[in-house]
Amino acid sequence: MDYNRILVIGDLHEPFCLDGYLDFCKSVFTKYKCSHVVFIGDVIDNHFSSYHETDANGMGGSQELDLAISKLSKWYKAFPVADVTIGNHDRLIMRKAQSSAIPSKWIRDYKDVLGVPNWNFVDKVVYDNVQYIHGEGGTAKTKCRADMMSTVQGHLHTQCYTEWFVGQNFRVFGTQVGCGIDHDSYAMAYAKRGKKPAIGCAVVLNGETVINELMPL
Questions:
Q1: Which residues does 89 contact at the CB level (< 8 Å), separation at least 6?
Q2: pLDDT tens digit sequence for 21-50
């Protein structure tokens, strides 16, 4: 497979993704004739199982998961082969199992639970000397300088940019891809007093050129 034209899709937090974000990502994929897709993490929200306060009027666990699976099926139909960097929201159930001392043998794989058998769930993936991570350890520009390696990440919903760092013997970039969340959903209530999210995605060409695309709103 050709990994030289990569579409990087921001955090979805299904079933709380913004209407129209899927069509936007499909249009960017076509515009740049992309050959591969990386979901940058948090494809599901798992609000019902959050370590923070949950909405008492929100969906129960079964209902939220069923709706997330239904919405992800549309993403899977559009992008049937993809890498998914595992985000902190994706890991919530595994963390709860670990807190309860439940062996991992009892836990099904992400792709089995979510009905996406050809998606590759990983902590990190590298193509053309560019690392793709979810990004819980800080900003992309901090991470790329710390590792001396070009870095693409999500996690930070309000950031969408590419910044280059050039030295005597190196040239690396840090890219934040934005996200696809619905800021008005109850699951995002924790961020209501913060900045509005940057709704966007990114395209990486040959590991050398990065294009940040913001969704028209």
A1: 11, 13, 41, 42, 44, 45, 46
A2: 999 999 999 999 999 999 999 999 989 888
